Amino acid sequence: MKLLRRLLSLSLIRMSSSFSSSSSTSTHTLAHPTLGLILGALSKPTNTIQYRGLPYARVPGRFRDPILVNSLTHLHTSAPFDGTKWGHIAIQQLDAEEMDAKILNTPVLSVGKERKEMDELRCANLVVTTPDSERGKKLPVIVWAHGGAYKVGSANFAAYDTVNIVRHSVEIGMPVVVISINRRLNSLGSTATPELGRSTESGNWLLKDEKCALEWVCCPLPEGG
What we know:
Elements: H1 2-13, H2 15-20, E1 25-32, E2 36-43, E3 48-55, E4 57-58, E5 67-68, E6 81-82, H3 96-104, E7 125-131, E8 141-145, H4 163-171, E9 177-181, H5 186-190, H6 205-217
Helix pairs in contact: 1-4
């Protein structure tokens, strides 16, 4: 717990420096035994590899239970999965990141619009951040779900970028892998009513998304989690 508190505090203190060097990135191709080929964003300044937008569940429709995804074969492509691109986030108000930054008393960092693209059925994805210098090693895993009162938030938000946590973990000699989760929010993630006509599905979609994400984490992770 002490380690986690130290890592989280350093995350906010050093976040601006991580984005000043974000342009110094290249790609790393991971041959995962079950997920297949995945491109990751390799950042030498932060000593991290980040795999973004990895789908952990398939959402078949509005107010439907998520279906665990433990491979990428459902994408029907032989090309490597492009984990350098950010996945979709949950439907929420357009100024959610600015409002969240104001609450956290952190600066609003300028990031690309691709980090804020919303999709109700494609937001069940996560970001895996690993230390570049620890490739192939078995490391502890921290799973983090953003706050926001289940109304706003995303693992894509600049203030929640986990590169700082991973970088600092290496610097103090206790390297970790960090997984941050995107999931459904608001009424689209929590509505439960008999009017939906599905007696076996009782709402709490966002918690079911989180459960799927944790089940996904139990599978072998990229780069030795």
